[in-house]
Predict the 3D structure of the following.
Amino acid sequence: MSHTHDHGDHDHEHDHGHAHPVRIDHDDRPLGYYQIMATAVFELLIEKGVTTADEVRAAIEAMDGRTPEQGARVVARAWTDPAFKARLLADGSAACRELGIDMGVTRLVVVENTTEAHNLVVCTLCSCYPRAVLGRPPDWYKSRAYRSRAVREPRAVLAEFGTRLPNDMTVRVHDSTADMRYLVLPRRPASTEGWSAERLAALVTRDSMIGVAVAKPA
Ligand code: FE
């Protein structure tokens, strides 16, 4: 199959003569038990006037709008404000609330990387993840391989992410639960003295807050 693309950045059209690989539509399989249950509950709640489709859509949009930039803002603030960092380590949910991030009823535990210890977060049972500060979890976080290997051989997993730690550094693996989530406070990169929190936030990646990586060097 060949078709014509209009590229816009150059003013000609051309044929790509390549065939696209066949992709199975993601909704082209029978619904599972929980999908049917969720649809039934959704329809009942609307029928009984408890909520509206628009309210549900807005809630999903708000959930999808959360990104790791929230977590980066929390980390950068902790790097530049020792009093905030102390509050963050004492009660992650309350400190996030100060920055306008609502953790709901979930307890957020913030674990600090130091020169002696590195922290790694996993949910061995399913996919519990601090979505309020990191958005949706990446697929690998939910994979059986990560969930099992992160606790059995964390150093090998870290190495696959390009993170090699000194042999004498302790690796602590934290197993999340439905009502307790973990966020790693990465170490502040060297040579960033005097940087603003906004500038520092750009060095804080999602993976560094899960603990499979460290913050970007300056
Ligand atoms: Fe889980």
The chain has eleven helices and six strands. Residues 123, 125-128, 176 surround fe (iii) ion (CB under 6 Å).
